[in-house]
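Give me structure tokens for this 470-residue protein.
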Amino acid sequence: MRHKTTRSQPVDSLDLQYYAREKKVWTAATQVFGLNMSVWAFDRYVQQADFAKISMHSIRENLKEGFYWDNDRLGTNMFLHPYHGNLYFNSARSRGFNYWESGAFALGGSAMWELFMENEFPSTNDIIATPIGGMAIGEVFHRGSDMILDDRKRGGERIRREVLAGIVNPMRALTRVINGDAWRVRQTSGRQFGIPDVSIEVSAGIRIIEVQDEIFDKGAGLGTTFSIEYGDRYDGENIKPFDYFTIRGSLNVQASQPLLGQLNIIGRLWAAELLDTKKDYFNIGIYQHFDYYDSDTISNVSNEIPYKMATPAAFGVGLIHKSKRFKDWDFNSYLHINGILLGASLSDHYRVSERNYNLASGFGWKTGVNISYKDKVGVAWIYEGYRLFTWKGYPEGTDLATVDYDNLDAQGDNSNATFNTTSLKIDLKLKDQWYLTAVGTYFRRSTHYRYFDDVYSKSGEGKLMLTYKF
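Here you go.
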């Protein structure tokens, strides 16, 4: 059941010409350089962080030793680094560079930081996750800010739009201040993508992930979810990256659990129509994927972490299908097969510094079905699977409690892991755009170790929420 916020409109040709003039390599590179220097100065002189105390000696050592796998926590490596990559990306994207060109700036900014701005050896996983994950997050934020801005507005509305767009995309806000676009009134909106088809769902309610304790103990809390679909999923002539994308996420207000529990981005890079008949429609595409699942120990009853998994760098082939056979029913589905350049999965043994997960690469698959009847009731089923291989482990018998982790160059345990998640969502329309939503999700992990016994774990969660669909 999809609700569109606005009627789509193409981009104005004057706006395309305007942004083409802003495409200047050195100004974008200077902004990336200035971002790195500002963050380093804050780390060095405000936080007094040891890693920021760099010198010519530390730079020579970094260049000499090369890259290694670091031991930061999951949220740092798999979300915050890609978010930082988004800042590099949008330093160029906001100046008229396209998706691929802006990715090169993200790579350059990440390489500068890893090689020169820390006295720790440069990180292999960061140089992958930061630019590639930053491209996915960055393009979503860039297009999100584009929908908010309107250069025709004045006064209070103009200020509100500029501030909100700046929260979504800080580097675009900085660029607009530097260029004077933040207050310049123009005859066109200034949007780079016109007004696309967009649907937004926001839900809030009760989340339960463990019922072994009393019902309102640590296993129960507040959960919020959001879902955005941007563009036309049935467009078979897509030629620009992220003209179509989806994003799903969950934020938790729950004892012992991380605030960000889930983030999934699927962005289409290219598409072609396969079939369009009176009964069925199919298109095929190349997609970029960003996935992040995080949880922590729930309570002393289970005393275990349910799951941790992330794939900040993944690409694959996807199929989208729509059935035209039913008059009052909407039936659509999708299937994705992905290669995972960099992923992470919870480890039962690797506990080094802040890391309790294995870094890995592998492949994954996603499929889903959406069925709705006259916008009154809807059912969505989603199944995802990830197969991750940790190919650079540590020698058998290594004592991780005493190892010098600064010099431990390992992805984690020698292992391979399978992570599956299945979700069933039911929407019941209450009134206007308000719905009652029930979601049940099942998580399963199996990890096969070379030097330890295999581990199988499973967990689940349930949500009962009120949903507003824009």
